[in-house]
Amino acid sequence: MRLRENAPKVVLVTSRKEHEEQDRAAISRQRLTLGASFASGLEAFGYLCSNPCDIILCDNNIGDMDSRSFLRLLKKNATLKQIPVVMVTAENDRNAVLDAIAAGCAGYILRPYSVDTFERHVGTALKLTTFTEIEEQQISDAKQLLAMGRYDDAIEEFEEIIALHDEAQQYYDMGCRYLLRQKFGKAIVSFNKAIKINELFAEAYQGLAEAFRGKGDMDGYERYLKKAADTYAQFDRLEEVKELFIEILKVDSTAINPFNTLGVRLRRNGDLQGAVRAYQQALEISPGDENIYFNLSKAYYLLEERDKGMEALVTALRINGGFDEARDLYGRMVGQPWTGDGFDELVDNVGRSREGSDSIMDV
Fold it and tell me: What is the C-alpha to C-alpha distance for residues 274 and 337, in angstroms, rounded to an integer?
């Protein structure tokens, strides 16, 4: 009995009685405690606002709203967005799975399910909540040092955490690659890990800001406060990229290399760094595609990284010397037609050429 008292608390959301009975039986067989069950998304949300749980099991049939809307409603709440939501549904459609991933689910169980399947998916979702447990304890320790006025010690603790900041982007990239291979479970885990890391770093930057303010260093305070804001903005951008990538996969399920399409969309939306990263991922799939190198060159030029832009453009032309658009762009950048010259000489030519990056906006 003591084991059950310490078990993770579950909230179940489904409007179908037979599904509720199945899920209740599955919960009773695991080391889980059912906190409450609802047939309405809004009722469940109201309950959760004052009675948070450890995990939510959500059917696609929840009466007053679709399950993706319910998921997004939870994600807008600062407290509830931390709770993993596992979809338990009979929807076996690929686009339904993609929609759930875009909304931020932490697992996807298809009905009818086995005991082992239920245990595995719920267990994975619960483990995600402790993925950054060590770092969270480190932040807690750093905050205690901050409260004690030991600002230098606190700064040291916070800086250890932010040293791994690129990991969030890496997990998002990994998630997109898993989506392309239709390994949806692994994609879900990767995206959720990225979210956890990003939130951790934002908190660490805020802590650093407070530590520098405590030391009387207002420049440091403002610098790290901006980094915290930038980290939250990066999270929003990465979520937008994930949703855009999923939209592309839904529109063309047979696309060989949707990362190139993603790069084009991001460049047109003004996210040039995101476009460059998408094109780089596209080249991992199609390393000999001159069109991707051409698109990459345009993104680099718009970022005013002209050497990298020329390198990508020259690579496109070396792959296909008859690539008319690339030849035209090369002529506008260098002021002479493509002849297959060596790269070093080309970079020197670009350095001496007229200012022309504005014209690339039309390409």
Answer: 31
Alpha-carbon span 241 to 314, nearest angstrom: 28
Question: What is the total count of domains within the chain?
Answer: 3
Structure tokens at 156: 């040291």
* Assigned token pair, 70: 């319910």
Question: Which residue has 């696609």 as its token pair?
Answer: 60
- Contact (Cβ atoms closer than 8 angstroms) between residue 231 and residue 205: yes
Boundary of a domain, candidates 205, 236, 251: 251
Q: What's the pTM?
A: 0.79
What is the domain range of residue 341? Answer: 283-362
Average pLDDT along the chain, 363 residues, taken 10 residues at a time: 66 96 95 94 95 95 89 90 94 92 94 95 93 88 94 91 79 92 93 89 92 93 90 84 90 80 91 92 92 96 93 95 93 87 49 40 38
CATH number for the domain that contains residue 70: 3.40.50.2300
Bridge-based pairing of strands 9-13 and 107-110 is: unpaired
Residue with tokens 């750093």: 142
Residues in contact with 115: Cβ distance below 8 Å, sequence separation at least 6, in sequence order: 26, 29
